[in-house]
Structures are given as C-alpha cells and as structure tokens.
Write a structure and sequence with these properties.
The protein is α+β, with helices and mostly antiparallel strands. It folds into 2 domains: 2-110 and 255-282, Alpha-Beta Plaits; 117-249, Alpha-Beta Plaits (2-Layer Sandwich). The protein contains 6 helices and 16 strands. Strands 1, 3, 6, 7, 8 and 16 form a 6-stranded antiparallel sheet that branches. The chain has a 4-stranded antiparallel sheet with strand order 11-14-9-15. Helix 1 (21-34) crosses helix 2.
Length: 295
C-alpha cells in the first residue's frame, strides 16, 4: 500500500536542503521509536518519497510556497503503516528543517496492475551500493547502461525479498528473470544539457555518516509481477528504508489515483474546526499535486 500524507505548511517560503531524505529518515525513525513498539524499531520494509509541493529553488535549497505539502509512504505491512501514521497524527506541530507543518489527512493510492515489464520514474534517488565504514565504494559511478547496474539491483532486491520471509524458496528461485533497462535517450539528453542524473547523497546509519551515489532517471524493469510489486511498495536498491529508491509508474492508466484513507487508530482525530463527522482524511486534495522542480 502507498499512502499520501498531507501536511499544511504554516510558514510559506521556508526551505529544506535540495537533498533532504536524511531529514525525513530521522523524523520517521524518531516517530517509530516514540511509539514504543519494539517489533518495529528495526523494521526496514518501507519506503518514502521526498517532500512534494510547489517549490522555488535558491542557494539555500527548495523553498515551499504551497499551503499543503505531501509525503508518500509505502509498505506491504498495513499494521506498520497504521502505527507510523498514528504517531504522525499524535503531533499537532512538526518541524522539518525550517518547515513548520501540521498533519491534515491521508489518501490511499490506487494500486496499479503491474506487468512483467513496467516503465518507472524515480521519485527519490536510486542507490546501488551499501558502503562499509570509511570506504569510497558507495560513491563509485556505475554506467546505467551496464550489466553491473542491473545486477547490483537484482542482488539487493532478492536479498531483501528473502529476508522479508514473505516468499518460499521455490518462489525466490523462480525470480531469476530480472533486468533494469535505463532510458538512455533521457540520460544522454541530460548529458548534452550538462545536467546531472547521478549525485552524491548523505546517509546516516547508527549516527555514522555515509556518502552514496544516487541516480534519478526513468527505466524499464523486466521481472516477475511479485518482484515488481515488492519493489513498487518497498523500494528498489539500497537504503530504501531511508527514503531512497522510491519509484512511480511513468504512465498511470487510472485517472483516479487516490481514495480517502482512514487508518486504524485508538483515538479519533477530528478535522480542525469541523464537526466530529469530518475527519482529516476526507478533505479534498488541493495544492499537493505539483511536482518538485528539478534541480
């Protein structure tokens, strides 16, 4: 399941760094710990996007000017998702970098029908390598058109699928067909325009800073539908639980992409200023559909 978490922005014009996944990762980790359910403290089978909204670019970073901003959360585990959302809505005010936010409502994205071949776009950078401490391997550039690029993603995906415990050994053995084919026309066009599709990003794990190379580009994935579903909901590549490797379909067949989502929780959270029958979940979408400006 993929859920859109919509916040109201209290200080328009405030900014986040261009690459703010680590800020979001620290925020979500804090919520997971705060909730007190130890079985989720080290849960890694979830994924999230960057913060989306109407933005302008400056030297400081991305300045947000929409009244609403959106964070997309994704996981196959509904219980975990509801637990995380419960912690978010327990706070009336949230500070992310210079942004002051208030959680408003949630929407459930309509699940697409995934085939054995799907074209995806990256809505957060795709990381190929999990580096060891004090080494440079994580920053190494790998040509997207090479076999190594696809092989590294295959290895990390099958390893994560095996660790999840959701698949039998027979199923895992049947998932050997896997290939990532980047859109090299797009990549070459960026090169001609002297724009980057691969950058160095900071990742923090157990208070240790790592630097990794992330790729943002469209690609086609050839794999079994079960594999497609896993990476669509849990991310592709390394550090997916830290906000990397979230994808979206390049073309959506359905015009209606979301439905209101009332996650399970003990307390009732009324919509601000409304009666008790108006929850935060059934407010109409407004200014959250604008994509981030490319930097």
């Amino acid at each position: 399941m993929r859920v859109r978490l919509i916040f109201s922005l209290k200080n328009k014009g405030s900014f986040l760094p261009f690459h703010h996944q680590y800020i979001l990762a620290q925020f979500l980790k804090g919520l997971i710990i705060k909730g007190g359910r130890e079985e989720f403290y080290n849960y890694n089978f979830f994924n999230f996007s960057g913060l989306k909204g109407q933005t302008k670019v400056s030297r400081s970073g991305l300045h947000y000017y929409s009244s609403l901003v959106t964070l997309v959360l994704s996981s196959q585990n509904e219980e975990f998702m509801d637990y995380l959302l419960e912690q978010v809505f327990a706070a009336s005010k949230i500070e992310l970098g210079n942004l002051i936010l208030s959680p408003e409502y949630t929407e459930l994205e309509v699940e697409p029908t995934l085939e054995v071949s799907n074209k995806f776009v990256c809505i957060s950078p795709l990381v190929l390598i999990t580096p060891a401490f004090n080494e440079e391997a994580g920053k190494r550039f790998i040509n997207p058109d090479s076999d190594e690029f696809s092989d590294l993603l295959y290895e990390s995906t099958l390893t994560r699928m095996e660790k999840s415990g959701w698949y039998t050994p027979e199923q895992l053995e049947s998932f050997y067909k896997f290939q990532v084919v980047p859109d090299m026309v797009y990549v070459n066009k960026l090169k001609e325009q002297q724009k980057k599709f691969a950058r160095i990003y900071a990742v923090y794990d157990l208070d240790v800073k790592y630097e990794v190379r992330g790729y943002t580009l469209p690609f086609t994935l050839y794999a079994a539908p079960e594999v497609q579903d896993f990476v669509f909901k849990c991310g592709l590549g390394a550090f997916t639980h830290k906000g990397f490797g979230m994808m979206d379909l390049a073309i959506h067949a359905s015009e209606t992409r979301t439905t209101p989502y009332k996650f399970k929780r003990e307390g009732f959270v009324p919509y601000k200023g409304g009666d008790r029958d108006r929850t935060r979940q059934n407010v109409a979408p407004s200014e959250t559909e604008e994509p981030l400006e490319e930097v």
